[in-house]
Write a structure and sequence with these properties.
This protein has 6 helices and no strands. The chain has helices spanning 2-6, 23-48, 58-85, 92-99, 104-131, 144-151. Helix 2 packs antiparallel against helix 3, helix 3 (58-85) packs across helix 4 and helix 4 (92-99) packs antiparallel against helix 5. By secondary structure, it is mainly alpha-helical. The longest helix is centred in the middle third of the chain and has 28 residues, at 58-85. The chain starts with a helix and ends with a helix.
Length: 152
């Protein structure tokens, strides 16, 4: 919907010629994309636990990876179009807010909620990674579990 609102007006004549290639910008974009992909890898292992054993590892990995790639590509293209519509300079989020008109504030709220949810899941994955080597050999009883949970 946001892309439709952005493209409801004609593109500037120099839309496809705006911007120039530089190695620093390319490398920064590459790194952001790589980190984006790595941050989604815990979701593959998290969901694959609940699948039948005959599914294997490859199919959940490929489905999660392809979804993350498609999401990355679409999000980055959305930002590129927004920035190029407004002259190719400045903050991408401000460009998206401005280029999408009345939908801008709604998108900013949705982006905020999305970031909060992803950061929560990243914290969840980090905590699981940190506590994995510290698994106790003796598990607390049912009565002691709520007490130990509340005290930590």
């Amino acid at each position: 919907m946001g892309l439709i609102v952005m493209l409801d007006r004609p593109l500037p004549a120099d839309f496809w010629q705006r911007g120039t290639f530089n190695l620093n910008g390319w490398f920064a974009t590459f790194c952001i994309c790589a980190v984006w992909q790595i941050s989604f890898s815990p979701y593959t292992s998290d969901y694959s636990r609940y699948l039948p054993a005959n599914i294997g590892v490859f199919r959940p990995f490929i489905c999660t990876w392809l979804s993350a790639c498609c999401g990355t590509i679409l999000a980055f293209l959305f930002g590129v179009v927004a920035v190029n519509l407004l002259g190719g300079e400045g903050d991408a989020m401000a460009a998206v807010r401005q280029a999408t008109g009345w939908l801008g504030p709604i998108l900013m709220l949705l982006f905020l909620m999305n970031i909060i949810c992803h950061n929560s899941m990243n914290l969840y994955g980090s905590v699981l990674s940190l506590i994995t080597p510290c698994r106790p050999s003796v598990w607390p009883s049912c009565r002691l579990r709520p007490t130990s949970s509340l005290s930590s």
